[in-house]
Amino acid sequence: MNVNRYARQVLFSSIQEKGQEMLAGSTVLVVGAGALGTVICNHLVRSGIGKIRLIDRDYVELSNLQRQMLFDEEDVRQALPKSVAAKQKLEKINSSITIEAIVGNATYENIKELTDGVDVVMDGTDNFSTRYLLNDICYKKGIPFSYGGVVSSRGMTAFFIPKETPCLRCIVKEGADHGQTCDTVGVISPAVDVVSSLQVTETMKYLTGNQQYLRYTLLTFDVWFNQQYDMKFKQPNPQCPACQREEFPALQAKAADQETILCGRNTVQIHEKTAIDLQQWESRLTKVATVQRTPFLLKAVVDSIDFVLFPDGRVLVQGTEDPIVARTMYDRYIGS
Ligand SMILES: [Zn+2]
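That is the input. Now the predicted structure with zinc ion docked in place:
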């Protein structure tokens, strides 16, 4: 281990060489490589974490650069998937870290495998259905879950530990954001940084054997209108279907919604194919659309709609948030 690189961190009395070695031996799953996820990975990689598994379903666009700290204009030009662009940047920052980049969705079908060998799961998502999925797998497998959410100038974060603390379902109800999303009320990047930095801080405490310093609260704040509130964890909800009744509803197979509206993106994702051959679809769509193929995706522009096809079978329909419009366009140009 190159101690010089981490000299300032090793000097910190709660970490020292022992803590540094514990970090180097740790694996973290980061779900989402957007605003929160990029800041989280940046800190983790600089701190000398052993391994990061990073999953994201989206690709880099110009409007991301305002707050997604690992990306630049070249990533936008190349339309790189976010997890791939993030990995490239992170490896330049610290080449000794193992980074596994996955382009895709975290779902009830793959979440068990995604969390294998993981010491902490970190939330870089923008929606409660994925957060509840992460919460449920963490409580099922006994993995700590570092939750964070941000919208406008407000942030919210907590570090949940199975069998020690209540879970996300006990503390934060779905819809706690009152339907406000980055799409409707925007977001400023300092608020993102604060939330994700706090997520990483708690994770570092946990991974370096400093559990006695964990905050054990749900912290909410507004960096613009100057409010802050620390709510001590209460008792778990005795009816909680995750941490108490151990039913883990998000892990149950269900007729999963094939259409998902992506936050802040004027985009609907349709996932009903199991795979897409980009080359084949390029030649098919060239006749009706303006197409651009990269090693990771195929973009096709028809009328005012952009289709983005991924090899894992997902199609983003951009230019609408109406699932019916998206489905109509999908059926017309992609079909089953
Ligand atoms: Zn619970």
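The longest strand covers residues 145-151.
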